[in-house]
Design a protein that fits this description.
Blueprint (H helix, E strand, L loop, with lengths): L9 E3 L6 E6 L2 E7 H12 L7 H9 L3
Antiparallel strand pairs: 1-2, 2-3
Length: 64
């Protein structure tokens, strides 16, 4: 990887009717199902995203 120091802030709201609001850099991006949040957190805990930018991008696309 290069010297790219780009950072984003991701916030996941409390659950409301089985959905969570996803905010990226303070802006509402979309809503996802509570079950999807659990699945994504499990994947993130495996640290597979650390293998490179493509792995991180794949994980990120799962929420869209």
């Amino acid at each position: 990887m290069g010297d790219n120091n780009t950072r984003i802030t991701l916030a996941i709201s409390g659950v409301d009717n089985g959905q969570r609001a996803i905010h990226i850099d303070g802006e509402l991006s979309h809503h996802i199902d509570e079950g999807e949040v659990a699945t994504l957190l499990t994947e993130a805990r495996r640290n597979l995203w650390r293998h490179g930018p493509d792995a991180g991008a794949r994980l990120g696309r799962q929420t869209v």
